[in-house]
């Protein structure tokens, strides 16, 4: 076990400090990652926006990550964090299953009631149509034209109001997400500073390579499996968004925290060392973190492309 330095500031280089800060910010991002989506599902009373296959594949990635960390004999904090990931995944998956079952039952019940209601109202509707057909010639056309014009004006006013409300909500959401990201960065940086000053954290020298190769032999396969799961998990979500042409029900902050966590995790590794043995040992985790950033960028593009039309179309159909 490495002995902590009494005065870590004397031995701390800028790259070591950045590696520690990025690693701590990444840790804070992962801790808060699933909270926005849990809140979004609760507010919507539904989990239809998020792909259950996405969460299940991600869960498999977290399980293999935990197995790899335990096999490699990593420090207890890393293993504890991997366990936390698995528990958080189970909570989110359970919430989604709960809402899917509840909403499926409600949909079946409403469908049955609507069929029975339509059957019972069939005769009165027909009689009203027959009575409304009597009147002066042309009066029906004039009433229909006036009603159509009034309906078009109402839809136009509603669409204009919806755009104004949507822009205000979008601006508010942008501010909220920005503040949340800054707070996570501040928490991560403060956590690293406290750990450094208290001696709980100190820069870890890169080993000669033997220990790292032993760890790679024990955990590298699981690391690559985890990376493949993380890369493949977002594909069902991207396909679902594209097929429905909507990102409704998804938390943008959830994916922003994922992007922040992956970016700072990869940066923490690269700032620690660029030695070939060290990079090859951590390559699975680099692929899993930096590779998913590309898929997150695709989801951000879908938020931009599908976010506004989905709200407008829903408002128009409701009118």
Automatic annotation (TrEMBL):
It is a multi-pass membrane protein. Keywords: Membrane, Transmembrane, Transmembrane helix. One of its GO terms (biological process) is vacuolar transmembrane transport. Residues 124-155 are annotated as: Disordered. It comes from the Eukaryota. Its main location: membrane. One of its GO terms (molecular function) is basic amino acid transmembrane transporter activity. The chain crosses the membrane at residues 20-39, 51-72, 78-99, 173-195, 215-233, 253-274. It is found in: Membrane. One of its GO terms (cellular component) is lytic vacuole membrane. It catalyses: L-histidine(out) + L-arginine(in) = L-histidine(in) + L-arginine(out). Residues 139-154 have a biased composition (Basic residues). This is PQ-loop-domain-containing protein.
